Amino acid sequence: MSEPLLYINIPGLEHHPHVTYTWVLMILFAALTLAVRVSMKLVPTGWQNALEALIVTLVDSMEGIIGHGGSRFLPLVGTLALFVFAGNVIGLIPGCSSPTANVNTNLAMAVIVFVVYNFVGIQKQGFVAYFKHFLGPVWWLSWLIFPIELISHIARPVTLAMRLFGNVKGEDLVIFVLVFLVPLILPMFMMAFAVFTSILQTIVFVLLTMVYLQGALAEEH
Amino acid sequence: MKKNTIFLLAILAIAAIAPAAFAAEGAAGGHNSAAVEYMALGCVVGLGLAALGGGIGMGHAISGALSAMARNPGFYQRLFPNMLIGLALIESLVIYTLVIVLILLYANPL
Question: What global pTM score does this model have?
Fold first, then answer.
């Protein structure tokens, strides 16, 4: 596959469009939220309304899934939701490429989620009690359960990254192939489907983050 | 075994060793011709099997969700997002196979 033709280029980073477009998204979100902050009203309209709706939805689902102190993770979960959604969708604009279509971006986000949920679990329950959960409910099965738990915990960031990468890169490849079939018309349908799967992948990523946080913070008995 | 079964197995066996036979004539390029052709065969078969399992799983999920929605039409709004999330998680298993195929075909570590 040849190099894509991009509108925005940072000299020196032409082979790394995911870095360039991560910066583009950062500047975009900073400008958007500053513009909303400057003209905040008590009764929200426009962008303020949309962002407040997103925040209220996230806080409600965090309180529901993680439990009582759940909304303190709003910076992490909100950033992930906005970045993943914008990162997926920006690739559909001709001349721009998705940062989430590169496995490095997704793996970075997944490793952040992994470190945060383990750290928060150890911080709440203490080192020993947190690792006792790896041994399972009964002591005479822990030789069997410990490798299974270890592998499933290591699989979590890997699957988070691979799921998002596979979906976004797969959409890009299908659009690439469809452009060769019927140039301007056929990719349109795949792009419409790609917006839908971008929203769905954002929801799945954020939901799994909240579920992992709940698993680390939940105390049995 | 039945005659049809033996026939099908014979065809599969020939298809499985065909890449080695063609590569011996020095056909396609690549690092090692037989390896590249086996890899392509493996990618297609693997992805086909993954799509098979994924399709069956998603069929079960949607069947259950549709039965619940038909039984109780008022619960549509509560069931539909959960069905979509379940489908995305099942689909991600097929996509793991796609990622391995992409790595083998484009980033070619062998």
Answer: 0.85
